[in-house]
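Continuing the series of single-chain predictions for the mutant panel. This is the parent chain; the variants come on the following pages.
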Amino acid sequence: MKTSSDILPKRFYSKKASELAPKLLGKIIHRKLGKAVLSGMITEVEAYEGDNDSASHACGGMKNKNSTMFAVGGTFYVYFTYGNHHCCNIVTGKESEGQAVLIRSVQPLSGIDIMSMNRFQRSCENQKDMINLTNGPGKLCKAFAITRNENGLDLTEDTIWITQGKKIPAKNIAISKRIGISKSIDFPWRFTIADNPFVSRKP
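Parent structure:
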């Protein structure tokens, strides 16, 4: 049973997205769904920072569709992309800065049967299914039943929250260029747990 002391506090999210992103690796994201709690260890993230980052939703300023990205750090930002899937992000920094970290992959820990039904409409049958369950931003949102309904949630409350998990040493963090974008492609702001199979693509 979690307690309020388990949940990462608002001050944890006060850093720039590129500074906070590697610190999120190894943390545990939890999602309350009815009476169940789904959880997974964060294994892959990408940082997006403000108006100087042309790949960021915040580039060009605040609009209705990206307004959540300009909230205070510790807010959940969910968007729908390519008319096909949702992506979930953790807003960082101070209010109005427009920074966020995209959660690209997690390693499933609990509620796996529910995640599997959400993703495949069946149980995971093998290790390949387990890895494919949440190894991508759209996949993990579908497995965790995250939609725009969760956009704007406070990550210090009890619907979606993040706990400490385990510390990943710097030597075990792989740094690479972001993927799936066509702008600002040279920023080394994609971070993964090295040698962890639960990632969308090896760096």
